[in-house]
Amino acid sequence: MKRIIVTGALGQIGTELTLKLRELYGEDNVLPTDIKEPVDSPLEGKPFEILDVTDYEEMVRICKEFNGDTMMHLAALLSATCEKDPQLAWNINMGGLVNALETARTLNLQFFTPSSIGSFGPSTPKDNTPQTTIQRPVTMYGVNKVSGELLCNYYFEKFGVDTRGVRFPGLISHVREPGGGTTDYAVEIFFEAVKNGKYASFIDKGTFMDMMYMDDAIQAIIDLMEADASKLEDRNAFNVTKMSFDPEMVAESIRRHYPEFELTYDVDPVRQGIAENWPNSIDASEAKRQWGFDAKFDLDKMTDTMIEAIKKKL
Ligand code: VAH
Fold first, then answer.
1. pLDDT, averaged in runs of 10, over the chain (314 residues)
2. How many domains does one find in the chain?
3. Which ligand 1 atom lies nearest to the CA of residue 80?
4. Residue 79, ligand 1, Cβ within 6 A
5. Are 153 and 179 in the same domain?
6. Which residues are catalytic?
7. What's 273's domain CATH number?
């Protein structure tokens, strides 16, 4: 039976991952942690621990007490936030990761942490980006993600820690909105469409990025962690994606519900600059081949689901 500690459990991925893990493995077998109490969160009032991932002693104490066998490390600052304070980003993203890997090594935990399409840079092939290719990111977030991929691989090769991870595209969800990401426009646009019938995108027309609906992302984590280790030729940097789109394509899909929806542009030079350094579309064939990755939500199915859920929420 799996007993899983989740860091960053109040984040965009952490919230829905925790709910899914509780459903699969039982509430008592999942320990969500984050730097603050779950207020106005679906995780409110259930087993929960306050944990700052830069505090190694506290992380080991909590994990020992819970007696888990798996660590899913999600606590991190996202791309645009990292550019505001790169030194803080390094301390949290890398300091937290080293602590989590050391905890996994000393307590013999299976380990998951996500990388991102942000681990690629301007010299990476932009279309159908292969899983193994040049990675010279020019953002602190990208440096953190490439370093994290290499570090997780090292802990597997050197110490035998069962580390696994995927490179996520932009993730679209309605349960817990993201914060500080470059792809967040693709979440905001749905909320604004339902609330106001219009949206001013901070990412420009014609800027293509890989995206995936959160349900597919959560299923990918579960499938990878449950995969037969003997089938994994790679460990920590599986490209996963379902679609690539620009703001115009999302607007078209939204107009199937709101024909009058108005999309305008108020481009944020920082996040536009980050987006232009990322691939237009990545190749997920290795994840499909090695552990059966599959994603079910295309753009229209995601739009229908998001709009339905947001209308209920509001
Ligand atoms: C970000 N949502 O925008 C994250 C993600 C691929 C994008 O890494 O920073």
1. 94 97 95 95 89 98 97 97 97 98 98 98 98 98 98 98 98 92 97 98 98 98 97 95 98 98 98 97 98 98 98 93
2. 2
3. 9
4. yes
5. no
6. 141
7. 3.90.25.10
Query: Which atom of ligand 1 has the smallest separation from the CA of 141?
Result: 9
CA distance 293 to 219: 9
Q: Is 32 in the pocket of ligand 1 (CB under 6 A)?
A: no
Say how many C-beta atoms besides its own lie within 10 A of residue 233's C-beta: 8
C-beta of 279 in contact with ligand 1 (< 6 A): no
Sheet holding 209-213, edge to edge: 170-172, 209-213, 243-245
pTM, to two decimals: 0.97
Sole residue written with tokens 């939500």 = 297
On whether residue 110 sits in a domain, the answer given is yes
Query: In this predicted structure, what is the pLDDT of residue 24?
Result: 96
My answer on whether 138 and 199 are in the same domain is: no
Which residue's structure tokens are 């440096």?
143
Ligand 1 centroid to Cα of residue 182, in Å, is: 6
Contact assessment for residue 207 and residue 272, using Cβ atoms and an 8 Å cutoff: yes
| Predicted local distance difference test score (pLDDT) of residue 290 | 97
CA 258 to CA 194: how far, in whole Å? 8
pLDDT digits (tens, 9 = 90+) for 101-152: 999 999 999 999 999 999 999 999 999 999 999 999 999 999 999 999 999 9
Nearest-atom number in ligand 1 for the CA of 180 is 9
Same domain? 46 vs 193: no
CATH of the domain at 231: 3.40.50.720
Q: Say which residue the tokens 């237009």 belong to.
A: 280
With a 6 Å cutoff on the Cβ, whether 142 touches ligand 1 is no
178 lines ligand 1 (CB under 6 A): yes
Q: Is the same domain home to 105 and 14?
A: yes
Range of the domain at 275: 171-211+243-279+297-313
